[in-house]
Specification:
379 residues; mainly beta; Methylamine Dehydrogenase, Chain H; five-stranded antiparallel beta sheet; 1 helix; 30 strands; 5% helix
Length: 379
């Protein structure tokens, strides 16, 4: 039935409410990218995700920067950090850590940059106090803690560690390759998976000085496994290490820097014979399910987690919706996974059932230049 003029005053008053409801549903997502010669990317991109519909908007440029691969947020301030390549080269040729203030419209303004303490920076995270950012450098196997000033800009290096050694899988393990950095829930230890050494090194961390102590006994994986990333359970009592080269997940208990292995499970179907490498792992906020991605097989694997024993059982393996799922993230509602496909230049959305952990086929796919990291803005 057509609306008559007598309804227009009512609509006039309701229209702002409609707009507010739409705005509440939109969750901003920052996208880290590769800006190399073969890419059309110019830096960090921004898209909006609607958790009611599962729709992701087409990304737009939020800030220009060179190779802002991995991204992370400040724990309290509206600041986004990226590891990449500096605007002006550092004398030692090191990679960079850059800070960007997040504006009311979620556009980014450059705060500053500092040395990452090594070459080929690939992962970073901010400690719980917001006083430093830790960064791992794949290129030369170093890691560093970089001090943050009151404005949140990165500055001097508090601690720098250079790993040494190698592994059996040449050439990928011809030397150390620090691939991730993770503070524990107590903010007392920094865990560092090193793909080249088949170890997850564990360093005491002094939050007052942002300095690292001498390493504790590490988690040692199977030879040639190539630990890449890890994820803690919500209670911090267990963790899961993703091994890139062996395509396995190692479960371990955790308490105050001490670990005990709980066994491993594969990331790929038993009948797969092609070439694939694991890329990312995360734990669902409800702690019941673990997710990992497979580059080559181009899929996501779902595991059910036994909360008592920490052991995993494969629930599902499903196509991710694109090529080379470098990174993925679960949205704040816990009902969707957004997956970044580096080689098909796309991001796909897959519905997630929090009661079973299972994923549905990709329902929305948007174009995005060389996406390699997805981070939801804090709201």
């Amino acid at each position: 039935m057509a609306l008559t003029l007598r309804y227009l005053p009512m609509l006039h008053h309701l229209f702002p409410i409609f707009l507010l409801a739409t705005a509440v549903q939109a969750a901003p997502v920052f996208i880290g990218t590769n800006t190399g010669k073969s890419s059309t990317s110019k830096g960090i991109y921004l898209a909006d995700f609607n958790a009611e519909t599962g729709q992701l908007s087409e990304p737009t440029l939020a800030a220009e920067y060179q190779n802002p691969g991995f991204l992370t947020l400040h724990p309290t301030q509206p600041i986004l950090y990226a590891c990449g390549q500096p605007n002006a080269p550092f004398p030692d040729g090191s990679a960079s850590v850059a800070g960007f203030r997040i504006g009311p419209d979620h556009q980014l303004s450059f705060l500053g940059e500092a040395s990452a303490g090594g070459k080929g920076a690939c992962h970073l995270t901010v400690d719980a106090t917001g006083k430093c950012v830790a960064v791992s450098n794949y290129g030369d196997g170093t890691l560093a803690t970089v001090l943050l000033n009151e404005a949140g800009a990165p500055g001097a290096i508090a601690s720098a560690v250079a790993h040494t050694g190698s592994g059996p899988m040449k050439p990928r393990q011809d030397g150390p390759h620090a691939h991730g950095v993770y503070f524990d829930a107590a903010n007392k230890h920094l865990l560092v998976p090193d793909l080249g050494l088949d170890q997850v090194l564990i360093y005491p961390f002094d939050a007052a000085t942002s300095k690292l102590g001498s390493p504790l006994p590490s988690i040692t994986t199977a030879p040639g496994a190539g630990p890449r990333h890890l994820a803690f359970t919500p209670d911090g009592k267990q963790l899961y290490v993703l091994n890139e080269l062996s395509n396995t997940v190692l479960a371990a208990s955790y308490a105050d820097g001490k670990t005990t292995s709980l066994g491993s499970v594969p990331t790929l179907p038993t009948d797969f014979t092609g070439v694939s490498t694991s890329a990312e792992i995360t734990v669902h906020p409800n702690g019941k399910f673990i997710y990992s991605s497979n580059r080559g097989h181009d899929s996501l694997t779902v595991y059910a987690r036994d909360a008592q024993t920490g052991t995993l059982t494969i629930v599902q393996n499903i196509p991710c919706g694109g090529k080379t799922p470098r990174h993925f993230t679960i949205d704040p509602s816990g009902k969707w996974i957004l997956c970044a496909h580096q080689n098909s230049n796309t991001i796909s959305v897959l519905a997630l059932d929090p009661s079973t952990g299972k994923l549905s086929p990709a329902s929305c796919t948007v174009t995005s230049p060389s996406p390699i990291c997805l981070v939801f803005a804090r709201q």
